[in-house]
Design a protein that fits this description.
Number of domains: 1
Helix content: 55-70%
Strand order of the largest sheet: 1-2
Number of strands: 2
Order of helices and strands: HHHHHHEEH
Radius of gyration: 19 Å
Shape: globular
Number of helices: 7
Length: 216
């Protein structure tokens, strides 16, 4: 158990570092759209470092049943941290997309948002409008399906104790993820770090496409 959990922490840290490097690499092209994401990543990586260091302090202890519980608890806490960063990153993205639209030049999306009351300015609706643009869609149909998948998962965490009210399935980086209706979501300890990475990528695609349309 000790070696498995420690390896999973290393795997998650590597994924989060990849996201951080992506944000850094795209910094000159991101229109300040990735700053909040970087802040969330840094906080989570700091906590993971603490768990990793605490883990090393235990490596010389003879593995009793109590020690086993400690390593299981560390794995559980690490999994929770990946869920928290996933939720926080999506919340940051929702805030930034609305801010980008309202504070930039005239666009169909800006006109759309200005007709909506603040409580109706939902990310899901904005993304559908982004896909519905008849001139230059900002996101593809496949990306819209990914967004729907990620938002349904986020909402189940926030509003329904991680229990889905419908069956979900998506292919992310060539791997199929299936979640059953009326069941608590389960996956590997790396699952939500992987989802976070993909969310950041398709969000950045949206940012680039949006600003490109403003230049036309």
């Amino acid at each position: 158990m000790k070696d498995i959990v420690k390896k999973r922490i290393e795997d998650i840290f590597k994924i989060l570092q990849e996201i951080g490097n992506f944000c850094l690499y795209k910094k000159e092209q991101d229109h300040n759209s990735l700053e909040l994401i970087s802040d969330n990543l840094n906080s989570t990586m700091s906590l993971l470092s603490l768990y990793y260091d605490y883990y090393d302090e235990l490596k010389f202890i003879n593995q009793t049943s109590d020690d086993q519980n400690i390593y299981t608890e560390i794995g559980y806490q690490v999994l929770n941290q990946t869920k928290f960063v996933y939720i926080n990153v999506l919340s940051s993205i929702e805030f930034k997309i609305k801010t980008i639209i309202l504070e930039s030049g005239d666009s169909p999306l800006k006109k759309y948002l200005q007709t909506q009351k603040p409580h109706n300015r939902k990310l899901r609706k904005i993304l559908k409008e982004s896909n519905n643009n008849s001139v230059i869609p900002l996101i593809s149909e496949s990306e819209l399906k990914e967004w729907e998948f990620f938002l349904d998962i986020r909402n189940s965490f926030v509003h329904n104790n991680a229990i889905l009210n419908k069956k979900l399935s998506a292919d992310i980086y060539g791997q199929t993820y299936n979640f059953e209706e009326n069941h608590s979501m389960s996956g590997s300890i790396k699952t939500f770090a992987i989802f976070t990475k993909r969310v950041v990528e398709i969000y950045f695609n949206w940012v680039q496409n949006y600003y490109n349309t403003l230049k036309k």
